[in-house]
Fold this sequence. Notes:
- The chain is mainly alpha-helical.
- It has 3 helices and no strands.
- The longest helix has 25 residues, at 55-79.
Amino acid sequence: MSYKTLKQFILRSEVLKLYRSFLRLSYKVEDKARRKELQYWIRSDFDSNKNHTEEEVIKMAISRGKLSLRELEQTIMIAK
């Protein structure tokens, strides 16, 4: 496995981990309609970023995603 392929694999793993974290968090929303809306937003946001190929762009998107995940987690915990 080449170095470039390894880096792509690691970035892909990070993106999938972030996506799963968002989906897990969405199940903490009790209102089913809001949960579906949130899941739709998560899916569409990840879909809109799936065509990025530059490593730095992907890393920045992951960083923004992690920040959004923390903010969403705080919002959901406050709402309970």
